[in-house]
Amino acid sequence: MGASPQEPRTRVTARARDLRFDAGTLSLNLVATVGRRPAGPVERMGDAERLAAWCRGVGLTPAPGYEAEALLRSLHALRDAAYDIASSLLDGHRPSPASVDLVNELAAPEPPAPRLELRPDGVRQAPGSDLLTEDALLSVVARDLTGLVSDASRRERLTRCASEVCRMLYLNPPSGRPRQWCSMRRCGNNAKAAAHRRRRAATGEGRSPESDAT
């Protein structure tokens, strides 16, 4: 009798809590701050320190004096709406009207345009022109999601990691072979190792008592 399929391992390691910046677009990098959706969600951006690390990782700079807890709550709400909308493009469910309304509301403010200045060594971005108020930062992320939904070529590249534990949403590259895993170094290698274990187990079960005795 063959071995029963193994359940996905759900041990929450430090690596499972790592921030991810490889989803292919800003709004999906926000979605990826919760790991292992929907089976066993793992919070990756739960405090002010992780919020600051995420902002640095995606290249967004909150203006000085921002309220970290308030921004964190707003990003968490946007994250849930973004997951609802983005995952609907894959599984066909109807997103909540509240998710759509929230994204539209947050996308409405116009983010400030970066300013340039002429220096002796050439044209550079003016200091401070990349600083974002809370509303502007949320707008940048929400607009990225609306851009994803409205762009047919990007929608076609949206996929979900094949790992039953991970299930991360990400964009495949515009050219080259589509990826099955969010990362070959993470889920891809885990899948290869699991397949190797299954092959070894099947080989061991198929050995005769005589061969075990030799």
TrEMBL record:
Residues 192-214 are annotated as: Disordered. SUPFAM superfamilies: Jann2411-like. InterPro entries: ABATE (IPR010852), ABATE_dom_sf (IPR023286), Znf_CGNR (IPR021005). Pfam families: ABATE, zf-CGNR. Residues 157-200 form the Zinc finger CGNR domain. PANTHER family: BLL6575 PROTEIN. This is RNA-binding Zn ribbon-like protein. It comes from Streptomyces thermodiastaticus.
